[in-house]
Amino acid sequence: MVVKVFVASSSGSVAVKKHQQAVMGFLEANRITFQEVDIAMMEEQRLWMYRHIPRDKQPEKGNPLPPQIFNDDHYCGDYEDFFLSKENNTVFAFLGLSSQTSIKDSES
Which of the two ends of the chain, N or C, has the fewest CB atoms closer than 10 A to its terminal CB? Predict the structure, then answer.
């Protein structure tokens, strides 16, 4: 199981950049292994992300904004969902992880 954080390196939005940094910073600080996927650089990954976000999480207009979080092919949520799980101390459940399996090796 791999946690994937879909980000956009070339986003012009300060809010999007802050949200991306907040998610990845939290994961790094808690030694949760994740893969950063830059949708600005990989069209195929961007399209995959759009196709795998549930309809009820899609905005009425436009495309979903990063960061979007997945565990393998399972959609976990967006920044708002992540923030709520952080506030409720349920991040591991939100990510679909047990706390033991998510800790990075000391070699990483």
Answer: C
Please state, in angstroms and rounded to a whole number, the distance separating the CA atoms of residues 32 and 53. Answer: 22
- Domain assignment present for 41: yes
Render pLDDT for 41-55 as a digit per residue (tens, 0 to 9).
999 999 999 999 999
Whole-number Cα distances in Å, 3 to 32, 57, 96, 97: 8, 19, 9, 9
DSSP secondary structure code for residue 80 in this structure: H
Mean pLDDT of the chain: 90
Q: Quote the radius of gyration of the chain (alpha carbons, Å).
A: 13
Number of domains in the chain: 1
Q: Are strands 3-7 and 74-78 parallel, antiparallel or unpaired?
A: unpaired
Q: The domain containing residue 30 runs over which residues?
A: 3-102
Measure the CA–CA gap between 30 and 8, rounded to whole angstroms: 22
